[in-house]
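Please annotate this fold before class:
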Amino acid sequence: MHITFLNPQGNFDPRDSHLTDHPDFGGQLVYVKELAIQLGRLGHKVDILTRRIEDPDWPEFAEAEDGYPGQKNVRILRFPCGPKHFLEKEDLWPYIAEWVDNVRTFYQAEGALPDIHTAHYADGGLAGTMLNELDSTPFTFTSHSLGAQKLDRLLTKEMPFDEAVDKFRFDKRLAAERCALAHSALIITSSEKERLHHLAHKVYRDAVDVSDDKRFKRIPPGVNPEIFSETSTYENEQQVATLIEETLHRDIPMMRRHLPMVVCSSRLVEKKNIIGLVRAWAHSETLMASANLLISVTGDPYPFRAAPGTFTPQEDAILDELRQLIDERNLWPCVMTLSLKTQHDLAAAYRHLAKNRQGVFALTAFHEPFGLSPLEALACGMPVVVTNSGGPAESLKDDAGVLVDPNEPDDIASGLLKLVQREDCWHSYREAGMARVMQYYTWPRSAVEYEKTLQAVVDSKPTPHKTHVCPEWFRHPDNDKFPSDWLLKAWSR
């Protein structure tokens, strides 16, 4: 098969530049890259389609074509749209139609259309809808996260509806998601909860029927066992171990260095709820006496002392809140910070901490659509304490991980204490978690499922859905013409 991955806002390059240090990158790009490579290894021709950027601050994305070393079946193809400089995903909507036209022109010049598109995130779903209307090429839709849940969370925090819609362009994002859900040949979800709860939201109700089994396929993502495993090695393995030990001696008093280490590796965004994890120490003197906390964020190994301009204003606000709580509760003797920038660095750190520091990985996000990072830590031998909101409740069942309420610091502390105070629990959760990851959650396994699923769609020659048509709003590069009042009506019904 000739398969494309539609990712207008996801920028790919061989070095995984900016993968962990920008909110438009991260997990979605790991998903697409790993899956594309594995499908290429199965013998399929795979194109990752993204946006071309000619911007001196983003030189990695200037070439029209790129690839990954040793992966002859995988191309990275970049197509221009809108201004040449980098645009955040919220600002891309007026230019998706132009991007689609450039994609279509490219394949017409090559002389053959792809067999099937896979569309990722809302803008990729919109592109898939447009290409389907133009050429009838079928596409699958993988949302990665859904706008309705994000808007719900913002409204719960009392952000005014109009402010949230204007800031995050929910009117366009949700309209694009509805288009993709209605027009896709198949909707690929990572968990049953995503289908039965998230997609059942009232704003999607007349775009997709979640009870229709024929419209859905559950294919969970996975880990790359070549990087994330207990036995993998990395050329800088020892350097990472040395960095951790040097940082431990820099930040943690001698009398505490023998304690187990809890690892938080996350972007500085509010939804990851790093403050909730730190509150667990603030609320529990037992936890304070039992474990240290390693916070790894990209951008600076000393985030609490970073120079002005290192982080965005939103990231600075999170750091200020963390700093204030650590000051108030005198938690500095418990906390160390460093920067682990690559997947290889993370894997090496997990292996070292699991072997030498009774390491525990913690992810206390308010909501995690799937939760790949705890599976990566588990694959390296580190047991996990993870939010019970979202995909982890499914992927980490059967005692593969300790699930906690992200809104309750006492519950987080209790979950952590189960692993840092009792070595028998640490070992049992570690073994159960590692076994579950390797049995169910690896990229080679995911790729085989994708291969069977995509081939079945191609063979069925699906008729394009006509119940919804792609709104003309998206075909005009003028945000003011977008009738955003439809969303208010949908939310109020």
